[in-house]
Design a protein that fits this description.
alpha+beta, Helix Hairpins, 5-stranded mixed beta sheet, two-stranded antiparallel sheet
Length: 529
Amino acid sequence: MGEQELPSNAVIATRVASPEEVVSMDARAWPHAGDQEKPRVSLRFKANFAYGLLLAFAVLLALFVFYQKEILLTQFDALQAATERELQLHDLRARLRGEIETHSLKAADLRNNWGAAHVQDHLRRYREFHRRVILPAFPGDAQARQLASAIERAMRKPDVETLARLDAAQQAFLKRLQQRIEETHARRLQMVADYRAHSNRAAMVALILGLSGLAFLGFITRNFFRRLCADLHTLSQTTAAITRGERTASLPVSRPDEVGELAQVIDRLAQDLSAQERDLEIERQKTFHQEKMASIGRLAAGIAHEVGNPIAAISGLVKDIIDARATGQCPLLEPDDECKLRMVLEHVQRLSHITHQISEIAQPQSSETCLVDLNGLIRSTTNLMRYDERWKNIELRLDLDKRLPAITAVSDQITQVIMNLLVNAADAIEAAGRAAPCVCVKTGRVHDHVFFVVEDNGEGMPPEVLARAKQAFFTTKGEGRGTGQGLSLCNAIVEAHGGRMEIHSTPGKGTRVFVYLPVERELLEERAT
């Protein structure tokens, strides 16, 4: 057969992988939870970050409180100044009223021509009081200036008329003072109201900020510890499940801290244990198969030996009778009897051929790597499978490449692969109930690989089943008809030999299984020369 193009996903290898390498390759093939690394944020960093946020919030709250305190102190100082101003104005009003009463008395004295000198002395003191107290309290006020003018006129001419004008100026200024007192009082009351409103507002804002900060911190802390407890509980349950022998799916724990790393380690541990258990199960199946084949071989060899001796005796006896008839030494034998003897001899030879095939199959095969004739293994395995009751109605076609080079492999394991694939083909055909069931086995070479194909026209596999066909312990067969380890075991054996197994299936039409095995380059060069 001519060379064909190797599929792009075929594995190229030139030697058989050791068991240790197989385990290593399996371990690398598992999708670990930590394949895509996330930035690590430790629990200590989270704690320090939360403490930093709390400290920053406390500092901001303290700055806000101190700022509001400065505003309140400023308002308090202004309120205190307004109160002092109001008290000063009340004191000034009281003194001014006293001066008005004094002036009334002085005016009565003047009308009676008494105490003109006392009046002038009083006016001087009053002028000094006006200059030191009233003018600084009312700078630029018109009423204050008019009162000053009235005082000066009264001092120049202290008579009843000037004192009457001074009294009128004092009454006008008294009204102005009363108005100023009322304005100052109203302003002080407004300042008191503003101070109270601002202090209440500042206290409320500080309280809301403090409570909001505490609520936010409590919410974050509650969620953090709730998730932490849930993740730790999940890890605890998963660890307990692993100790019980369960191998669950990937842990639903995704954290960039130490707990997440622990989850990844536990997840990887479960996956690696599952891979190792799968490899151990495959090795156990290999050993079981070898022991089973050895037991079958010993039994078949014993049966062939026990059956072969009588068959040889019968064959020799029949040949002697036929030879004696031919030489005339047995005159009592009729011609019809000779024909029957030849029929007996033909069936004896057929039995001898069957026992010879059984003897070939029963020969113990090497468990070490050696040069293997793939075509020969396929012929001997198919000859054995023909004795299965299911294969009586199945057409078995062999299309073997006569120029196929030898491969370096463990013959017993390759035989196990061929046998499992043929058994699966027979099961698929039996389930489909075809009118013309057929299985075709074909071999060929693709570059530095040889391949064989087992094709059947059975029921085929839907995509969801095909995707899990190589998965260990997955089976669609009924109870007691399969353990789901056949294709998984075949795939592991092929990969251990540096090859690859591909499965193509169409529901309702059938399945084709391709097995590619590498050929050593020296054998290819020797074959080419």
